């Protein structure tokens, strides 16, 4: 046991002396050459292991941050959708304002004989799918002051029909293309009186025109104002062909409508208002 103890003491003293010498030589700069050789010798090995190490570190970094990237991407997508929605609302509001201003300007144009028009703007919320061109449902009703027989128009005072049935917050509009629809009308230039009658789909005719009345193609047809609830001067369309015969008491004309009945979204209910 004494022999093993002496061996350990000897080894400890040896290591202590070697360490002291290495510290002394390193401080004196005697080991700089050796250190340079060692660095040079192990540099290739460092390069070999460095590349995989960098890739592994990059992989761990990507995995660590991938959830953050996903969250940020979702946030950006939400912000983008919000901006798209807000932009859509702004455009829709701008469009509605333009339509309203246009309708009000038209109202001033036909404000004759101290009689003007109050406009109520509404939205189309339904249409009959079985019989195209006959009815619409709008979101204006009794609570909004709507009643039967009031005229319904689109932008620039173009007549599309009249109210035939009223509910609390909605109403049914019979379109002028409905075969049951009749509107007292007059030609704008020659002042020939007649009745605009629906003729299925999107067609209408100006009927009951006396043979001695003068009419011609491209003349504009407007409402005559003879009906109690329909203001005078609402635009219907223009004549594109005339049908007449010497054997008939009346003649008639086919009207090209100004309103596009397939794309009606906003409507205006017209109510006479004396100043």
Largest sheet: 6 strands, antiparallel, barrel
Q: Would you identify the CATH H-level superfamily of the domain at 116-274?
A: Rod shape-determining protein MreC, domain 1
Q: What is the CATH top level name of the domain at 116-274?
A: Mainly Beta
Please state the structural category: alpha+beta
Strand order of the largest sheet: 1-2-5-4-3-12
The backbone outline, from C-alpha atoms, is rod-shaped
Instruction: For the record, give the distance between the C-alpha atoms at the N and C termini, rounded to a whole number.
Output: 129 Å
Estimate the helix proportion, in percent.
25-40%
Q: How many helical elements? A: 2
Description of the structure:
This protein is α+β, with helices and mostly antiparallel strands and 275 residues long. It has a domain at 116-274: Rod shape-determining protein MreC, domain 1 (Thrombin, subunit H). The protein has two helices and twelve strands; from the N terminus they run ααββββββββββββ. The chain has helices at 2-28, 32-109; strands at 115-127, 135-138, 151-154, 158-166, 171-175, 182-187, 193-198, 204-210, 220-223, 235-243, 250-257, 266-274. The strands form two sheets. It has a six-stranded antiparallel barrel. Strands 6-7-8-11-10-9 form a six-stranded antiparallel β-barrel. The longest helix has 78 residues, at 32-109.
Considering the chains and any ligands shown, give keywords for the structure.
38% helix, 2 helices, six-stranded antiparallel β-barrel, six-stranded antiparallel beta barrel, 275 residues, Thrombin, subunit H, alpha+beta
């Amino acid at each position: 046991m004494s022999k093993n103890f002496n061996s350990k003491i000897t080894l400890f003293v040896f290591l202590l002396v070697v360490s002291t010498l290495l510290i002394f030589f390193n401080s004196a700069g005697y080991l700089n050459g050796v250190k340079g050789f060692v660095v040079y010798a192990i540099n290739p090995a460092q390069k070999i292991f460095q590349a995989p190490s960098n890739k592994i570190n990059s992989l761990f970094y990507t995995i660590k941050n991938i959830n953050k990237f996903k969250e940020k991407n979702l946030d950006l997508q939400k912000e983008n959708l919000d901006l798209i929605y807000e932009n859509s609302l702004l455009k829709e509001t701008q469009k509605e304002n333009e339509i309203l201003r246009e309708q009000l300007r038209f109202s001033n144009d036909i404000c004759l004989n101290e009689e003007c028009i109050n406009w109520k703007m509404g939205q189309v919320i339904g249409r009959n799918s079985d019989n195209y061109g006959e009815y619409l449902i709008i979101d204006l009703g009794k609570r909004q002051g709507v009643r039967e027989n009031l005229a319904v128009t689109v932008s620039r005072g173009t007549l599309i029909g009249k109210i035939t049935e009223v509910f609390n917050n909605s109403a049914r509009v019979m379109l002028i293309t409905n075969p049951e629809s009749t509107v007292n009308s007059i030609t704008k230039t020659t002042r020939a009186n007649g009745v605009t009658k629906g003729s299925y789909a999107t067609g209408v005719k100006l009927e009951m025109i006396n043979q001695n009345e003068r009419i011609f193609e491209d003349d504009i047809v407007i409402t005559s104002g003879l009906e109690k609830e329909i203001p005078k001067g609402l635009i219907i369309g223009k004549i594109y062909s005339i049908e007449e015969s010497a054997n008939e008491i009346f003649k008639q004309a086919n009207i090209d409508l100004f309103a596009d009945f397939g794309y009606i979204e906003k409507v205006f209910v017209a109510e006479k208002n004396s100043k």
